[in-house]
Amino acid sequence: MDAPNPIHLKPAQADTVRAAHPPADILNSFAGDPNFMLSLARGLTVLEAFSERKRPLTISQVAQRTQLSRASVRRCLYTLEQLGYVSQQDGHFALRPRVLHLGHAYFSSTSLVSSAQPILDTLSARVHETSALAILDGIDILYLVRSEVHRVLTHALGMGSRLPAYCTSTGRLLLAHQPDAVLEAFFEHAELRPRTLLTKVSRPELETAFQRARELDYVLIDEELEPGLRAIAVPVRAQTGMVVAAISVSVKANKVSESEMIARLLGPMREAAAAIGKLVGS
């Protein structure tokens, strides 16, 4: 049987730099480009304003988050409402289920998702813990695949879920392999706030953690994202050697010690990462 064609993932560096800048600055950078459709870009920017907020937003709140004018935001929201992507009640706007079509199209067209799922399922069955595959997307991590054995986080996560990169094992590992320009943009725009009493939020602490991640070739996070949660991550390297994604395993801190995680989980995780890496081209 012929080997499957490798999956080509675009390196995260360029996306990280772009996503770290305010939306209005990004749109202004295309001024003078005759092929750039500004109205479409504004509409997508308005949609993205809802990504980190669960409650409905007003026009003023969207304008503040996007740095677009209230008039532009109003027209975008009106159009999105007419197309069924948002709903409006008493001046407050919320996303409608139709937006899921956009994300579903991405995951359905990305063969890495379907190819990696059985590998993660095998890993989770082998170690009896929840595992996940994530990539770096701006200042966040984006989950592509999860294989849940036990609920370890307070909130359920699925494909397309996002978490801050600075306090997650996969995020910290992926940031550790970014060039200096990307890290500068990250520190300039990321909101580094303590999620627990143990969260590292200072630049010196995080830079030291990045250096240690490169030396060990894994990251272990101990109750920095959420109390009672430990997670360990290993890199997924493309055939070129570039780190393009990361696999994590999450456990309850009161049930699995750090030393046990390293001894019991690291080997199987690296084998899974190598298997996924063989699917990824340059």
TrEMBL record:
Keywords: DNA-binding, Transcription, Transcription regulation. Gene3D superfamilies: 3.30.450.40, Winged helix-like DNA-binding domain superfamily/Winged helix DNA-binding domain. PROSITE patterns: HTH_ICLR, ICLR_ED. Pfam families: HTH_IclR, IclR_C. It comes from the Bacteria. InterPro entries: GAF-like_dom_sf (IPR029016), HTH_MetabolicPath_Reg (IPR050707), PcaR_PcaU (IPR012794), Tscrpt_reg_IclR_C (IPR014757), Tscrpt_reg_IclR_N (IPR005471), WH-like_DNA-bd_sf (IPR036388), WH_DNA-bd_sf (IPR036390). SUPFAM superfamilies: GAF domain-like, Winged helix' DNA-binding domain. Residues 98-282 form the IclR-ED domain. One of its GO terms (molecular function) is DNA binding. One of its GO terms (biological process) is positive regulation of DNA-templated transcription. Residues 37-97 form the HTH iclR-type domain. PANTHER family: HELIX-TURN-HELIX TRANSCRIPTIONAL REGULATOR, ICLR FAMILY, TRANSCRIPTIONAL REGULATOR. This is IclR family transcriptional regulator. The lineage of its organism: Bacteria, Pseudomonadati, Pseudomonadota, Betaproteobacteria, Burkholderiales.
